[in-house]
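Hi F.,

I've been meaning to write this up properly since the lab meeting, where we talked about keeping a consistent format for the predictions we share between groups. The idea is simple: the sequence comes first, exactly as it goes in, then the C-alpha cells exactly as they come out, then a line or two of notes. No screenshots and no reformatting. I'm using this chain as the first example so we have something concrete to point to.
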Amino acid sequence: MVVFNNPFGSFHDMVAEAKEEREQLDRLLTVSSPRDSIAVLAVALAVLLLGMWLFLGSVSRSLTLDGVVLSEAEVSPNGTRSVQALVSVTRDAAAEVDAGASVAVLVQTVASPATLPGTVTAIEIANPANGLAEFASRVPVGLYRMEVELASAADFASLVGEPCQVVVELPATAPAALVW
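Output, unedited:
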C-alpha cells in the first residue's frame, strides 16, 4: 500500500484524534458520580418549580396615585362617608382600578399624616372645566376623579385641598402575566 507523505499527518491519525475528542466530550457530559446526579436533579427541580410559579403562582400588586383631596361627599344611609380625590393616573393604570378595590388614602397634613382606609366606589375621567381648574394645576395630566367610601366615619373637612396619595390594592395576577 502506498502512503503519501503528508506534512500534517496521515488521514488515519486525524480520524483517531477526532474520535478521541468525541470520547472526551462524552466523558465530560456524562454524569458519573451520585453527587453530580443530585446536583443535576436539584437544578432541574428548581427550574420546574420556577416555571410552575410563573404560570400558577400569584403576585399581589398595588398602585400608588398622587392627587388632591377634592371634597367630602354626602354621608350614606349606613353612616359611612366618602371622599373624592383628583388623582393623576395613566389610562392603562386607571383601567385596572375597579369599583370595590381596597384603598388607603394617605394625606400629609401639617399637624400629622392621616391614613384613611376604604374602598373605591367610582373612578372617572375628570373634566377640569367643572370647577376643578384650581386643583388641576396641582396634579399632572391624566386626571381622574376617584370616589372612595371610607371605613371610618371620621370628619376630615380640613383635609379638602390637601395633597394625598391613594394606594389601590390591585387583584393578584400570575407572574407570567406581568412579564408578557
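Notes:
The two ends are 67 Å apart (CA to CA).
Residues 77 and 153 are 12 Å apart (CA to CA).

If this format works for you, I'll send the rest the same way.

G.
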